[in-house]
């Protein structure tokens, strides 16, 4: 039903959130998520990911801007939205003295059209823990219980706030697989993470948040493409940077040195690498610790964090000077 | 963990089969809270043991009072006091702990992400303690009738009204108090003012009739006094219509104040 009723299942426009002390955690965020898409909000701790997601979940009213989930305001129109969404908070939220099965049964009683609790527990591999009290679960098991409960009502939209924090590598992979399967079955997923690999693996599109704003957004490939590739090596004994062939001619856009280590940035990786290697061959020197790599999401992420901080520092300096 | 059988749910996503109702949601929550109540030793002692034991001390104090002058018997002194204890311990202080601990465990926040409305979360969480309080009061009434030769009430409707209002008021006051309580430990302390003031000033140990008039007229305004007055009046039949209305108005006013305080100061999440 209503497969194309909302091209955008989540629409966020100029969203702002201000906490009691006056701290502005979300400073004008705009993005949208299409039906059946996995959208990742990526950022360091304190970037404003959770503050943003909580507004989408309808836990608080925004200080400014607009949120629509499935066409409704999730805060004021709670009754229309909640039966169609599933939420996994960043941290637990279960009474520690209840068992896993009791917790699932309680939640099932509060979810329209709930699946049998045992079924969702099996989905996340917790069926053998049904009789165990929540306080005795490991951090990873608690995360999986939280995911199971978020899935109880077969939600159309799933909010996952750091779904794999505390999971071991295998648990993380299992969760990724489960989330992809859900997406393939038509579920729209909004997740936050500070694991770049997670965003790279799962997300159809992503936004990198920094300091309450979206620094960049797009598909993982698009975001990565904004970043230069990198060549790193150690200068051979007796050589200086000036002994290298003219860098601009190799398509190198910038370089840094750190002791004997040289780092080149380029958008033409093959040309730059070839030029460098041909020079080394002719000069009969060996480039130790040679590392040639295309831009990854990680570099995009670090690059953006650096750019934004640098811009801010410059801005602050100007303010002091004025 | 297996992701093999996730295809089915999406196919079955069409119309939601069984939509929840406020009652079904609150029942599910109350059932879980009842389990938790049974597993909390502190709540069991405070909620079950204390209200059944304290009345005994009221009884021994009563033997030294001139009750006849106030038109009271041991039964009409002990029963309202016992009901008062039950409301204070089994309902009020137990629920302060429940609300605070659920908030600190982020349970309230998690519940708010689902279909439950705010009022349903509060009511559902309060249900087991309120039901325990009600059951206790009924048992205490039966016990007093048998052990203390308590006659049948002359105005039972007043006693029933007083008890029901008392239950609602204590639950609401507990939610309000939890807003000013930071941790589970401090939930042992923050209910103390109301407990002490009520035990001293609400006619539980010493009937207001035996207090100086000026003191008594202040004590009448305390939250639990109208409950004690209505229950006692229900048995003695000594309350005039205006006295009964005054007591009802006081209880309703406190309940309204508590609801206002909850709307204004209740916290759904721990402080950051």
UniProtKB/TrEMBL annotation, chain A:
It is a peripheral membrane protein. GO terms for molecular function: ATP binding; ATP hydrolysis activity. It holds the Pfam family ABC_tran. The keyword ATP-binding applies. The keyword ATP-binding applies. Keywords: Antibiotic resistance, ATP-binding, Nucleotide-binding, Transport. It is found in: Cell membrane. One of its GO terms (cellular component) is plasma membrane. One of its GO terms (biological process) is response to antibiotic. Residues 10-236 form the ABC transporter domain. Transmembrane segments: none annotated. SMART domains: AAA (SM00382). This is ABC transporter ATP-binding protein. It comes from Streptomyces griseicoloratus.
UniProtKB/TrEMBL annotation, chain B:
GO terms for biological process: response to antibiotic. Keywords: Antibiotic resistance, Cell membrane, Membrane, Transmembrane, Transmembrane helix, Transport. InterPro entries: ABC-2_transporter, ABC2_TM, ABC2_TM_bact-type, ABC_2_transport. One of its GO terms (cellular component) is ATP-binding cassette (ABC) transporter complex. It comes from the Bacteria. This is Transport permease protein. Residues 42-265 form the ABC transmembrane type-2 domain. The keyword Transmembrane applies. It comes from Streptomyces griseicoloratus. Belongs to the ABC-2 integral membrane protein family. The keyword Cell membrane applies. GO terms for molecular function: ABC-type transporter activity. The chain crosses the membrane at residues 43-62, 74-101, 121-148, 154-177, 189-208, 244-262. It is found in: Cell membrane; Membrane. It is a multi-pass membrane protein.
């Amino acid at each position: 039903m209503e497969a194309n009723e909302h091209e955008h299942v989540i629409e966020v426009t100029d969203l702002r959130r201000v906490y009691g002390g006056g701290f502005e955690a979300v400073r004008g965020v705009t993005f949208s998520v299409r039906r059946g898409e996995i959208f990742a909000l990526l950022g360091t701790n304190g970037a404003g990911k959770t503050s943003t997601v909580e507004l989408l979940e309808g836990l608080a009213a925004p200080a400014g801007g607009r949120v629509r989930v499935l066409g409704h305001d999730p805060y004021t129109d709670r009754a229309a939205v909640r039966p169609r969404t599933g939420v996994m908070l960043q941290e637990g939220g279960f009474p520690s003295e209840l068992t896993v099965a009791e917790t699932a049964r309680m939640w099932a009683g509060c979810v329209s059209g709930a699946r049998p609790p045992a079924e969702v527990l099996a989905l996340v591999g917790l069926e053998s823990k049904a009789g165990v009290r929540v306080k005795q679960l490991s951090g990873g098991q608690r995360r999986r219980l939280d995911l199971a409960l978020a899935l109880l009502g077969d939600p159309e939209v799933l909010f996952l706030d750091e779904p794999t924090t505390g999971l071991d590598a295998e648990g993380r992979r299992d969760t990724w697989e489960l989330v992809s399967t859900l997406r393939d079955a038509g579920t729209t997923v909004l997740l936050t993470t500070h694991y770049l690999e997670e965003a790279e693996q799962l997300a159809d599109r992503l936004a990198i948040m920094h300091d309450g704003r979206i620094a960049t957004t797009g598909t993982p490939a698009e975001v990565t493409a904004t970043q230069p590739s990198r060549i790193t090596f150690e200068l051979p004994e007796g050589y200086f940077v000036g002994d290298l062939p003219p860098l601009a001619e190799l398509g190198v856009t910038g370089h840094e040195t750190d002791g004997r280590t040289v780092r080149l940035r380029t958008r033409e990786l093959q040309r730059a690498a070839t030029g460098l290697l041909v020079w080394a061959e002719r000069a009969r020197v060996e480039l130790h610790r040679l590392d040639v790599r295309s831009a990854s999401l990680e570099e995009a992420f670090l690059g953006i964090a650096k750019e934004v901080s640098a811009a801010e520092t410059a801005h602050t300096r100007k303010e002091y000077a004025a | 963990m297996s992701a093999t059988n996730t295809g089915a749910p999406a196919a079955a996503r069409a119309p939601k089969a069984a939509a929840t109702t406020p009652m079904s949601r609150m029942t599910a929550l109350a059932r879980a809270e009842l389990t938790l109540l049974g597993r909390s030793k502190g709540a069991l002692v405070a909620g079950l043991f204390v209200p059944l034991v304290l009345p005994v001390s009221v009884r021994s104090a009563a033997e030294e009072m001139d009750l006849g002058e106030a038109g009271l018997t041991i039964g009409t002194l002990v029963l309202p006091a016992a009901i008062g204890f039950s409301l204070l311990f089994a309902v009020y202080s137990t629920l302060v702990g429940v609300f605070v601990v659920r908030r600190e465990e982020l349970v309230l926040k998690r519940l708010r992400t689902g279909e439950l409305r705010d009022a349903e979360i509060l009511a559902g969480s309060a249900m087991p303690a309120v039901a325990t309080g009600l059951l206790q009061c009924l048992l205490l009434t039966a016990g007093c009738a048998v052990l203390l030769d308590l006659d049948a009430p002359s105005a039972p409707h007043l006693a029933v009204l007083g008890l029901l209002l008392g239950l609602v008021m204590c639950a609401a006051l507990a939610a309000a108090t939890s807003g000013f309580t930071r941790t589970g430990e401090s939930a042992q302390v923050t209910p103390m003012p109301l407990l002490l003031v009520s035990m001293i000033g609400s006619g539980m140990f010493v009937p207001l009739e035996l207090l100086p008039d000026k003191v008594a007229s202040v004590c009448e305004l305390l939250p639990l006094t109208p409950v004690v007055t209505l229950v006692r009046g229900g048995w003695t039949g000594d309350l005039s219509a205006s006295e009964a209305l005054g007591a009802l108005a006081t209880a309703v006013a406190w309940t309204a104040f508590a609801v206002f305080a909850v709307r204004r100061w209740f916290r759904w999440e721990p402080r950051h």
